[in-house]
Each structure stands twice: as structure tokens, then as C-alpha cells.
Specification:
Aspartate Aminotransferase, domain 1; 3-stranded antiparallel sheet; Aspartate Aminotransferase, domain 2; 7-stranded mixed sheet; about 375 residues; alpha/beta; about 15% strand
């Protein structure tokens, strides 16, 4: 990034030679990012973040074909998809949410029934969930949509998966029309994302008022961040095999904590998951209290989406999965990367069970002597596992 912050700070849209050099550098970065997902570089557009990409994909599709007023999605999508769908409902669109099971897997029969030939505008389903890491079978879902009606647009928010597991728009994802992702999920800086739009897909521009990004996304390019995005994409391709080690560390963390903490579940543990994500449901302990204690020990974790972690409301993802009330409020997520060490895993294994035990000692529904729920009092229905 530094050369484009210190010396090559020119506007890539200008006509003089140094600016042209910057424009060429952006074109090379575009190729690098496109290569990571098997896309034609001419169909990859840089944005400010995946939230913008998701907004563009959904609003852009709706504005391009106003005669179609039906959208299919799920109740576990990121807020940048859910809230856009809710906004379209306020504008008169109909949105069908396909339910998920206790493991976070999409109900395939309900999905097939939700599609409406000639009426459905868009299917928008994430590739991997940002809270549980559960992976949706995008290859099959996009194929079903296109077989139902070739004019249904298929969008996937692949923010969590790109750079962690293979995503190939020239291969198994060849029937995906729109794909969103973000740079910071694969170690680029925060503040840069991308949207892939398949050639011929009817999608209107989201930001207008400039010729940048082939006239599809107005605004002077964030050159330094785009360059970092390209470099991160190269590194992600080079280190994709490292995810085997990440998965091994995640699985060891899961296995050891499960052995040490009674009444703890793995949210999404029975479904295909990303290799780096571990979402735990600890019954009879408040998630917020666990996060405070983890933070005091220098351990960073989350109670849900980072975009909504300031909220005390239970996760909409876990609610849709019908996670029991106390476990829903006592769920936290550990996110690993290729930089996570065995020593850090050992530290969490040592510290976290002690935190849970200490918090359960002050829980009125927990029998400390038996290390189990109390049997001498009536536990409210909403607090039962």
C-alpha cells in the first residue's frame, strides 16, 4: 500500500502519465482478485465493503426489473442482506425466507417450493454463515433456481468463504449471477470489497455520478486499499492449503472444550462448516458475561455478527436455528486464521472452562456441587435446554 499512499497518490482517472501508471496498477489488482474466484476481471467491480456489494446486488436487481416483485432468501443472512430485503418489503415486494434446521442447514424442499417461475426476481443466499460457518450448497441451489426459471437472478454473499475455501465462478459456481465479498476477511484492509456481476445480468448501478468502474460504480477508486486487496488475493490463493491446519486447530479447540464444559453444544456442528469458525452454545451462562471475561484474559471473541455485536438481542441466526433460550444467550464465536497458533489454542482451552465454571457458580439454575442444572427448582420453560 505504501507507494500508493506516499508517491503514487494520483487520481487514476486523470490523463497524465503518473495517473495512468496508477490505473494500470488497479487493473492488475483487479486481475488478481478476479483470479481468486475464477471470474472475468471485466466483470469484477470494486466497492467500499461487502455491505455495499450486497446492497448493490439486491437493489440493483430490483431496479433493473421492477415487474418482478418476489425475492427468496433465508432467515440467517447477514444484516446487509436481511435489512435490504425488509426495505424492499416496505416498497411492496414479497420476500420468502426459506427456513433452516437446528444445524443451520437450508430446508431444500422448502427452497424448491419457494421459487416462482415468471415471478421470482432474485435468490439471495449466503455461501457460508458469518456466525456459525455453516456452508450452503450454492452449486445445487443456483442450479435449481436456473432450472426453475433461467431468468431468476442468483446472488450469493460469499464474504466469509472467499479466501478460506475454493470459490470458482468458472466451475461449480458457474450459474451464480452475483457474488459479493470483502477484502478484510482475507487479510486486506477494512474498507474495500467487490461485487461480481455476470455478463448480461440485469443489474442497475448503485452509486451514480461518475464513470469509474466502467460506469457501474461512481467514485474515485480507493487505490491503496485496492492494491492491498490484490496482494491479499494472491496470498490467499497461495495459502489455501493452510486451511487444513486451521481446521485441525479449530477441531482440537472444539473437542477439548466439549470435554471440559458440560451442557455445551456446537452450533452448526453437524453441518458442513468453514474451517476457521467455532460457535459454542453454553447453557445457563450469559454470552455477554463470557465475552467480558475473555476480553479480560486477552481473548477476542464475539456473540454474533461483528456488525451487530453491540446489541443485547439474541442472534437472529441462532433464533432461526431454534437454539434453546439459555444457549442462545450463551453462544459465542471463536474465529481462527492461518496466523492462529497452537499456543493460543492451548490458552483458550485452559482459560475458557474456568470462566464458564465461575459464571455458573452465580447462576440460580446451576448446581455447583453436581456441575449440572438444579433439580430442586422449576426452571422456566424458556430457560430449558
Amino acid at each position: 500500500m505504501r507507494p500508493f499512499l506516499e508517491d503514487l497518490y494520483f487520481n487514476p482517472s486523470s490523463m497524465y502519465a503518473p495517473a495512468a501508471r496508477v490505473a494500470r496498477a488497479i487493473a492488475e489488482a483487479r486481475k488478481d482478485v478476479a483470479a481468486l474466484i475464477g471470474a472475468n476481471p471485466s466483470r469484477l467491480f470494486f466497492t467500499g465493503c461487502a455491505t455495499e456489494s450486497n446492497n448493490w446486488a439486491i437493489f440493483g436487481a430490483a431496479r433493473a426489473r421492477p415487474e418482478r416483485r418476489h425475492i427468496v432468501t433465508s432467515p440467517v443472512e447477514h444484516p446487509s442482506v436481511r435489512e435490504v430485503c425488509r426495505e424492499l418489503v416496505r416498497e411492496g415486494y414479497e420476500v420468502t425466507e426459506v427456513p433452516v434446521d437446528r444445524e443451520g442447514r437450508l430446508d431444500m424442499n422448502a427452497y424448491v417450493r419457494a421459487l416462482r417461475p415468471g415471478r421470482t426476481l432474485l435468490v439471495t443466499l449466503m455461501h457460508a454463515n458469518n456466525e456459525t460457518g455453516v456452508i450452503f450448497p450454492i452449486e445445487g441451489l443456483s442450479r435449481i433456481a436456473k432450472e426453475t426459471d433461467p431468468d431468476i437472478l442468483f446472488h450469493t454473499d460469499a464474504t466469509q468463504s472467499v479466501g478460506k475455501i475454493p470459490v470458482n465462478l468458472a466451475g461449480e459456481f458457474h450459474q451464480v449471477d452475483l457474488l459479493s465479498f470483502s477484502g478484510h476477511k482475507l487479510h486486506a484492509p477494512k474498507g474495500v470489497g467487490a461485487l461480481y456481476i455476470r455478463q448480461g445480468a440485469p443489474v442497475r448501478p448503485f452509486l451514480i455520478g461518475g464513470h469509474q468502474e466502467q460506469g457501474q460504480r461512481a467514485g474515485t477508486e480507493n487505490t491503496a486499499h485496492i492494491m492491498a486487496f490484490g496482494a491479499a488475493a494472491q496470498l490467499a490463493q497461495r495459502h489455501m492449503a493452510d486451511e487444513t491446519a486451521v481446521r485441525a486447530r479449530r477441531d482440537r479447540l472444539q473437542r477439548e472444550l466439549a470435554a471440559r464444559i458440560p451442557m455445551m453444544e456446537i452450533n452448526g456442528g453437524g453441518a458442513p462448516r468453514l474451517p476457521n469458525t467455532l460457535n459454542l452454545a453454553v447453557h445457563f451462562v450469559e454470552g455477554e458475561a463470557m465475552l467480558y471475561q475473555l476480553d479480560a484474559h486477552g481473548i477476542c471473541a464475539s456473540s454474533g455478527s461483528a456488525c451487530t455485536s453491540g446489541s443485547l438481542e439474541p442472534s437472529h441466526v441462532l433464533t432461526a436455528m431454534k437454539v434453546p433460550f439459555t444457549a442462545r444467550h450463551g453462544s459465542i464465536r471463536f474465529s481462527l486464521s492461518r496466523y492462529t497458533t497452537d499456543e493460543e489454542i492451548d490458552y483458550v482451552i485452559e482459560v475458557f472452562p474456568r470462566i464458564v465454571a465461575a459464571l455458573r457458580r452465580i447462576c440460580p439454575y446451576w448446581d455447583v456441587a453436581k456441575n449440572a442444572p438444579r433439580t430442586d427448582i422449576e426452571i422456566p420453560r424458556e430457560a430449558r435446554a
